[in-house]
From TrEMBL:
Keywords: Signal. Belongs to the UPF0065 (bug) family. This is Tripartite tricarboxylate transporter substrate binding protein. It comes from the Bacteria.
Length: 326
């Protein structure tokens, strides 16, 4: 009888322990954040800034893990296939979410169905850049010159089907500019040819062009942001220059696997919104040549809508450029 009572008591204790563990507030252990690119790029830098602030907000260690490959696809797939418990997150950007779906025929994840957006962290707007001694002073000048030229004017991007290439194709369609795409292996790879005078123009990230402008080695004709950027307020937007509604940017944000518990999503969403609103965070994004996300884009709904719209723009640009999935 004593043995039976002991067994029953032990079973009750185990059940109580299990119930307490099941009801433990999220998070109760370290959180892993996968950056689907090598260390050093915008996604990695922003991911590590978020890592520091998320640790403070969540009260648990946050570990960054770099998993590069396939334009961000390797890391994105790892998160999509992970257990949706809130302990594995993705630093998402154009590559895995807006570009891969239109250039890879057999993508092992769905950028919309497989992820639950938490919030955007920042954007780096794209911009149109010309040589410092070029006669062009506006988008209209570039368009007019491109139409009058006997041969298409060359313009460099980060590569075929890159975010800047797709944005360039959207710009060409919207403006009527006659420009010859010159692809490079990354935005920075185009800079030496540009500085040597072998490349008339760049369509690149603002963070790449800003140091060139400040050194007098380039001139930013227009930025593809909704408003002028604090880092270079004299540079007008595409919209100001008659390209209605035209925006294009490389973005970075935080996502979880679809099916992540509501409690975890609420905690992550609140933490993300608070971080993005901090003046220190916003200043760091400006110093990087970007801009912190707006309050609306730092929310799950706002970021989800942005991703869907950006993916639609990428599909349209790829179709216009006759880029087919491979």
């Amino acid at each position: 009888m004593t043995s039976r009572r002991a067994l029953l008591a032990g079973g009750a204790a185990l059940a109580a322990t299990g119930a307490a563990r099941a009801q433990a507030p999220w998070p109760d252990r370290p959180v892993r954040v996968i950056v689907p690119f090598a260390p050093g790029g915008n996604a990695d830098v922003v991911g590590r800034i978020l890592q520091q602030r998320l640790q403070d907000k969540l009260g648990q260690p946050v570990v960054v893990e770099n998993r590069p490959g396939a334009g961000g696809g390797v890391g994105a797939e790892a998160v999509a296939r992970s257990r949706p418990d809130g302990y594995t997150l993705l630093i998402g950007s154009n590559g895995p979410l807006s570009v891969n779906p239109v250039v890879q025929a057999r993508l092992p994840y769905d950028p919309v169905r497989d992820f639950a957006p938490i919030g955007m962290a920042m954007q780096v707007p794209h911009c149109l850049v010309v040589q410092p001694n070029a006669p062009y002073r506006s988008v209209a000048d570039v368009v007019a010159a491109s139409r009058a030229a006997s041969e298409a004017i060359g313009i460099g991007t980060a590569g075929v089907a890159s975010a800047t290439h797709l944005a360039l194709e959207s710009f060409k369609a919207a403006s009527g500019a006659r420009l010859l795409h010159v692809p490079y292996r990354g935005g920075g790879a185009a800079v030496p040819d540009f500085l040597a005078g072998n490349l008339p123009m760049l369509f690149t990230e603002f963070s790449t062009a800003l140091p060139l402008q400040r050194d007098g080695k380039a001139r930013i004709i227009a930025v593809a942001s909704a408003a002028r950027l604090p880092a270079l307020p004299e540079a007008p937007t595409m919209i100001e220059q008659g390209i209605a509604g035209f925006t294009a940017a490389s973005y970075v944000g935080l996502l979880a696997p679809t099916g992540t518990p509501a409690e975890a999503m609420r905690a992550l969403g609140a933490a993300m919104a608070a971080i993005v609103a901090e003046s220190e965070f916003r200043n760091r994004m400006t110093a990087m040549g970007g801009e912190a996300a707006s309050d609306a884009l730092a929310t799950p709904a706002g970021f989800a809508a942005f991703i869907a719209a950006d993916l639609a723009k990428s599909r349209a640009a790829a179709q216009a450029a006759e880029i087919r999935p491979e």
